[in-house]
Design brief:
Layout: H1 2-21, E1 25-27, H2 35-55, H3 57-63, H4 65-70, H5 75-94, E2 99-101, H6 111-137
Antiparallel strand pairs: 1-2
């Protein structure tokens, strides 16, 4: 349970950094614009991203194993971007335009939105790596 909580916090921090760095990725807080609502929204979407990564991620990674070999692992950025788009879609089911990536609508997916999702996934990976490193130094697992 503690591991999932730490993972949720790490995902939330990565998502927060991604919304700061990538202008086409936005998170509209549930219930208003207050600090607690914003933090709760980031934690909720971070937990959702963790669940999607835990449930769907391994299946996709096993199926895409030949692509990992061919691309020397670079396909992981594309897979993480696709999982981030899935989280954006699931977040929109929870509430209208809560977590959105420009170009991703209920009618379809534009190529530009997939590029922004890949960039946001890359930023989230770097931010998560830094956050996990800080938590390791602080002996929080």
């Amino acid at each position: 349970m503690l591991r999932f909580l730490v993972s949720t916090i790490v995902n939330a921090v990565g998502l927060w950094v991604a919304t700061l760095v990538v202008p086409q990725v936005q998170l509209t807080p549930y219930g208003g614009d207050g600090l607690w609502e914003t933090m709760a929204s980031f934690l909720l979407i971070g937990a959702l991203f963790g669940l999607v990564n835990a449930i769907i991620g391994p299946v996709i990674k096993i199926l895409a194993f030949p692509l990992y070999i061919i691309t020397f692992g670079l396909i992981s950025f594309v897979i993480n971007g696709a999982l981030l788009l899935l989280v954006a879609w699931l977040g929109n089911l929870l509430g209208a335009d809560v977590f959105s990536i420009d170009g991703f609508t209920s009618e379809g997916l534009e190529i530009a939105s997939f590029g922004w999702a890949i960039l946001a996934a890359l930023v989230m990976s770097v931010a998560s790596f830094v956050t996990r490193s800080v938590l390791k130094v602080l002996k929080i697992r």
